[in-house]
From TrEMBL:
Residues 517-541 are annotated as: Disordered. Residues 529-541 have a biased composition (Gly residues). Keywords: ATP-binding, Chaperone, Nucleotide-binding. The lineage of its organism: Archaea, Methanobacteriati, Methanobacteriota, Stenosarchaea group, Halobacteria. This is Thermosome subunit. Coiled coil: none annotated.
């Protein structure tokens, strides 16, 4: 009996598993060479000729043209890692790919996929327990460790040349925006400027608003400024209903015009009486109002974004008002200086020297667009790991030390696991060693020698022993200052395990019609074929053909 339509395709059993595993491994392999301080960069070129040069795992995978649904599951691992922690995206994907590789060998040995999945889950839980117990406690006052964590996250990226300077800026920024509710990185605005060197990047304790003064006669600079934030329109009030007025005499028209001017003058006087030096308006400012504001020596900017008004309120301690009649001195924010400055050829308003600023701006400089973009990505990773460290208070050594220790302890744990799951736990331990092995390979070292040296040190109880990619020696990573948050490792193991298990449990791939539920890799509803459908699968049903443009990116 024919159940599926003639156009449908179906792959089942070991063929389906093999196809999905191959796709997942291909994604992991594409980013593997970017791992570590000596990782290489990828150049991604789209059909329009736009170029992205990066070694940031999640950026590479987002930009790659991947069609295969199983491959997209691995891409989701990197996106989850980025959202949760901000760093460790490449590690998470590489571990997921290696878990699939180890599972393939077990499947060839006639071990059922669900048995492997169960073993992987048990190993992942045990791995997280081991990391929790071995983690090093860090206090929020330990600035040196926080700087080391920020530096580690930038190592191997385009920002490496100025990582010490940038790490200090990142730590200052995160500590500045920390409050009783936690750390919201939306309060750290990263502004990129093409021109100058990376070393010239700076932290502005306040807000940079991408606006200019509305009138050339307004002052360029205001010291110890009182700032008003108004999210309405600085214009003549209009009636809420349509009204028609018949004028019989020119003097009556003049009276109307005079009345409008008087209204605007009163609005400006309200600001002046309240002691306002600077006003940011969410909507437009009438030309006549601009003239009166300039006369009063008030700096004004119009059409400020809601996000800018919120940032200004948080930084200066002011309050956004919707009606100028309600404005009081208590609503005004305060800043040491407000000035219009040229930055990268654009005029912007700098609101800085704010006492206890809870909203700050990182100005990132670089010689070209590509350099600036890569530095921005490195800084965003660093912001994420510093926040994770402050929230969790625990760190781990880098250089492949945690993975080597986990592999060692998981092999011991496997002996206590009954049944065939024991083999899956051992496979999980072997898979984790892909991290130190890859670090060695990318550094041009002998991976076997490096791994043997690491195992030997950890066997002797040295948990912090990791691989120095520069010298090739096994050293104490904690003393060297190569540390990363506990959450980077636990999240990577969790995400990689879940993705690998999900792929392993698939034994039937059917090119379905329009699926009712959401599916991997089909974020938009454009009426085209779904990711699992005939169009989305491409040639993937027969193997790797469905990877689309991935071959070019790899």
């Amino acid at each position: 009996m024919i159940v599926l339509s003639e156009d449908s395709q179906r792959t089942s059993g070991k063929d389906a598993q093999s196809m999905n595993i191959t796709a997942g491994k291909a994604v992991a392999e594409s980013v593997r060479t970017t791992l570590g301080p000596k990782g290489m960069d990828k150049m991604l070129v789209d059909s329009g000729g736009s170029v992205v040069v990066t070694n940031d795992g999640v950026t590479i995978l987002k930009e790659m043209d991947i069609d295969h649904p199983a491959a997209n599951m691995i891409v989701e691992v990197s996106e989850t890692q980025e959202n949760e922690v901000g760093d460790g995206t490449t590690s998470a994907v590489v571990v997921a790919g290696e878990l699939l590789d180890q599972a393939e060998e077990l499947i060839d040995s006639e071990i059922h996929a669900t048995t492997i999945a169960q073993g992987y889950r048990e190993a992942a839980e045990k791995a997280k327990d081991i990391l929790e117990s071995e983690a090093i406690e860090v206090s929020a006052d330990d600035r040196d460790t926080l700087v080391e964590i920020a530096t580690t996250a930038m190592t191997g990226k385009g920002a490496e040349g100025a990582k010490d300077h940038l790490a200090e800026l990142v730590v200052d920024a995160v500590l500045a925006v920390e409050d009783d509710e936690g750390i919201d990185l939306d309060n750290v605005d990263v502004e990129t400027v093409v021109g100058g060197s990376i070393d010239e990047s700076e932290l502005v304790e306040g807000v940079i608003v991408d606006k200019e003064r509305v009138d050339e006669n307004m002052p360029y600079f205001a010291e110890d400024a009182s700032i008003a934030l108004f999210d309405g329109a600085f214009e003549v009030k209009e009636t809420e209903i349509d009204a028609e007025v018949n004028v019989t005499d020119p003097s009556q028209l003049q009276e109307f015009l005079d009345q409008e001017e008087e209204q605007l003058k009163e609005m400006v006087d309200q600001l002046a009486d309240a002691g306002v030096d600077v006003v940011f308006v969410g909507d437009g400012i009438d030309d006549m109002a601009q003239h009166y504001l300039a006369q009063e020596g008030i700096i004004a900017a119009r059409r400020a974004k809601d996000s800018d008004l919120k940032a200004l309120a948080r930084a200066t301690g002011g309050r956004v008002v919707s009606n100028l009649d309600d404005l009081t001195e208590d609503d005004l924010g305060v800043a040491g200086s407000v000035a219009q400055k040229d930055i990268g050829g654009d005029e912007r308003l700098f609101v800085e020297d704010v006492e206890d600023a809870k909203s700050v701006t990182l100005v990132v400089r670089g010689s070209t667009d590509h350099v600036v973009d890569e530095v921005e990505r490195a800084i965003e990773d660093s912001l994420g790991v510093v926040r994770a460290t402050l929230e969790d208070g625990k760190v781990l050594p880098g250089g492949g030390a945690p993975e080597t220790e986990l592999a060692l302890q998981l092999r011991d744990f496997a002996d206590s696991v009954g049944g065939r799951e024991q083999l899956a736990v051992e496979a999980f331990a072997d898979a984790l060693e892909v991290i130190p092995r890859t670090l060695a390979e990318n550094a041009g070292l002998d991976s076997i020698d490096s791994l043997v040296s690491l195992r030997s040190q950890h066997d002797g109880g040295d948990f912090t022993a990791g691989l120095d990619a520069y010298s090739g020696n096994v050293i104490d990573m904690e003393n060297e200052g190569v540390v990363e948050p506990l959450r980077v490792k636990t999240q990577a193991i969790e995400s990689a395990t879940e993705a690998a298990v999900m792929i392993l449990r698939i034994d039937d791939v059917i090119a379905a019609g329009d699926l009712a539920g959401g599916q991997v890799g089909d974020d938009d509803d454009d009426g085209g074929p779904p990711a699992g459908g005939p169009g989305g699968m491409g040639g993937g049903m027969g193997g790797m053909g469905g990877m689309g443009g991935m071959g070019g990116a790899m």
